[in-house]
Amino acid sequence: ARWLWDRHPGPAAARLALFTVFLCFDTGRHERRTSVGEPQAYGTADGDLTAAVLDGRVGDAMANAANG
User: In the prediction, which pLDDT does 30 show?
Assistant: First the structure.
């Protein structure tokens, strides 16, 4: 980006420089995390999908939906 600005300054070079900075920042987003959340333990699915959804038991609802 600096080489382009030295040779051909203008909006295209500025756009390239800003995009380069964005990519440098954005590609490191995974390294900025300090910890990983612990997996949530779900109770045993009782087979009642409607009750699990209404009670807010997302894990049980997903297990019931996957098991049919």
Answer: 61
Going from the first residue of the chain to its last (68 residues), give the mean pLDDT of each consecutive group of 10, the final group possibly shorter: 77 86 71 65 66 81 73
Please give the structure tokens belonging to residue 41: 């333990």
Domain boundaries in the chain?
1-28
Residue 3: what pLDDT?
Answer: 73
Residues 6+ apart with CB under 8 A from 42: 57, 59, 60, 63
For residue 14 the two structure tokens come to 């500025």
Question: Element (H or E) spanning 50, and its range?
Answer: helix 49-55
Beta carbons within 8 Å of 14's beta carbon, 6+ residues apart: 5
Q: Which among 43, 38, 67, 39 has a CA at the least distance from the CA of 55?
A: 43
